[in-house]
Sequence to fold (261 residues):
Amino acid sequence: AAAQMTSLFQGLSSAEIVSSGLSPMDGRETKSFSGTPTKDRYPSTHYREPSYGPERELFPAESMTHDALNVALDNFVVFAETPSNVATFLEYRDSRAFLGNMEVVDVTQVEDKVPGLMEAFRQGPPHAFYLIKFWGSLQHDWVALQTSPFSLGMRFDTTLPHALRCTLTVGSLGKQVLEQTQVCFPREAPGRAGVMTADFGRTPLCAHMVKLLQRLGGMELNAVSPVLENLTVLMCVRDDITHEILFCAGLLFDASPTSDI
Fold:
């Protein structure tokens, strides 16, 4: 089973999470455990009107039109700072990635790997669930970083003027090990009509994750990858008033063989 799971995620950068039983897949290719795409078609259904009001065009300044998606991840970064340098371990940027035309993965094939995913998926909406593969860079001066602060930064694009509540659930070997929740009020994005930015700013990375990064920094690359393959994060963004899920992503990790990420 472990080998099958590894095969599923090899070469995967990002994907939409779907379900043959809970949400429409509209004939798109679904990756099987063997990694071989299979075709499935399910009846088309319409996403219900959000409880906060009528649906609006997604990110009109950039012609983004993904069905019913009102929040998208714009930036996610894990880094540490020294007086003379910033060491970036993980970084994701580009909300336009959530426009479709990506691979799709059935939720049943990842539910055991990402704690809390199936529970969130059942709450819906079905168009707001994704997998994102991170290639982490560990080629840094770890001696210089021993006393450095480690931080996490998150930023989302949103069409909604409501406070967003983001919960990060860290899993290891399919079990939840810690959880962190933050609330952010979005602000208008200059030059982008109808789009706001929810910037959660810089948050200190928890001691558990700092120790893990420091331990991985002292390991050979071929030993790092198996550890990261068993690490996941479930990122769940909700409307802080209605508690409705607006965006949810399972974050997967692997080690980059270079300093590029």
Observations:
- Residues 1-12, 22-67 have pLDDT under 50 and may be disordered.
- The first helix runs from residue 2 to 9.
- The chain has four helices and 14 strands.
